Amino acid sequence: MTAIIGEIDTEPEGPIKHSRIPGLDAMRATSGFQRGMLVFGLVIVAFFVVLAVFATWIAPYGFDQVGKGTELFPTQAAPSSQHWFGTTVDGFDVLSRVIFGAQTALEVIVLAVAFSIVIGVTIGLLSGFFGGWLDRVLVLIADAMFAFPSLLLAIVISVSISGGSSGKWSGIFATAIAITAVYVPQYFRVVRNATIAAREEPYVEASRALGARPIAIMTRYIFSNVVQTVPVIATINAGDAILTLAGLGFLGVGIEPTAAAEWGHDLNTAVQNDVANGIWWTGVFPGVAIALLVLGVTLVGESLNDVLNPLLRTSKLRDVVMPRRRAQDPAYVPVASDEDDES
Predict the structure, then answer these.
(1) Is 146 in contact with 185 (CB distance < 8 Å)?
(2) CB atoms closer than 10 angstroms to residue 168
(3) Cβ–Cβ contacts within 10 Å for residue 276, how many?
(4) How far apart are CA 226 and CA 35, in angstroms?
(5) CA distances (Å), 184 to each of 110, 178, 234, 307, in order?
(6) 336 three-state secondary structure
(7) Which fold has domain 28-68+80-308?
(8) Measured between alpha carbons, how far is 339 from 343 in angstroms, rounded to an integer?
(9) Beta pairing, strands 71-72 & 67-68
(10) pLDDT tens sequence across 49-103
(11) DSSP string, 5-69
(12) Residue 263: C-alpha distances to residues 247, 289, 302 (Å)
């Protein structure tokens, strides 16, 4: 018998097009439950970002407003049409303080994460590339900072900078610096280890042989290869920063309540004055805001980790198209196999 080998009808796939919209390529690399996690997290984060940016226009009252005109707000009032989330023991509108608390949290988180990335990545590159006594000193300092409990370290640094009292921006800056000191060692260790592995690669040796300066090697060749995990760490640390900020406010060493609204301080006030009296709204709504924002940031961070890590990636599979034979094509010429020639 003659075995007929058909020609495979295939069409070359075009080049993969990358979107100019930030994050769209990452969205396309996900599917199923993973995409649902990413979308849900982004929606939560976007909601709080909108609250923070437009807090002045969205909040019905000021964060420290206790009345309207000559009429004072009732204290510890239950949720109503005038005060959707009720009022506190001081007569503050809970809804307004929750909205302005999102603004405070966003400002502190952005500053803390930005400071942590700039400082941690910079010293990690220098330590991993040059090594020697500089590496030993920086590693010793990082290990010493790791030995302290994170919240205790943040409290000590916050009190040292602010002196126990501060205004809005000075308090935000002091709190951001305190949180930065907690997370810099994480970026430092990750970037340092990646730099030590990258500095022995052939492309780095080739750049050295061509006479490239150390600063050029670090910025042009090593930097882009060692910061791939930094976005994932940043999003996960942002969730921890929210909890650290709330912890500082709950303990009374964060931003002063008269300077800005802060969810941790509102929780502390609710525990001290309202819980024993059965008043739940002053503590529930700030607590729910903290939990939702941490959940959203954590979901985004975990989804980015799955997208950027090839071992965890579950991108959508393309449909499999079976090859077609052109037996019915008039121009088709059968080709005999080698086995048929031997027979």
Answers:
(1) yes
(2) 14
(3) 8
(4) 26
(5) 14, 10, 11, 24
(6) strand
(7) MetI-like fold (1.10.3720)
(8) 6
(9) antiparallel
(10) 999 999 889 988 888 888 887 788 888 888 888 888 888 888 888 899 999 999 9
(11) -PPP---PPPPPPPPSSTTHHHHHT--HHHHHHHHHHHHHHHHHHHHHHTHHHHSSS-TT--EET
(12) 9, 8, 25
Secondary structure class of 328 (helix, strand, coil): coil
Which residues, 6 or more positions from 208, have their beta carbon under 8 angstroms from its beta carbon?
217
Q: Among all chains, which residue has been given the structure tokens 């941790």? A: 264
Q: Where are the alpha helices (DSSP H) in the chain?
A: 24-28, 32-53, 55-58, 94-130, 132-147, 150-162, 168-198, 202-209, 214-216, 223-226, 230-251, 263-273, 281-308, 338-342
Of 2-6, 181-185, 208-212, 314-318, minimum mean pLDDT range: 2-6
**Residue 174 token pair:** 């002091």
Reading the block at residue 44, the tokens are 């939560």
Who contacts 64 (Cβ-Cβ below 8 Å, separation ≥6)? 92, 258, 261
Among 321, 326, 322, which residue's Cα sits nearest to residue 6?
Answer: 326
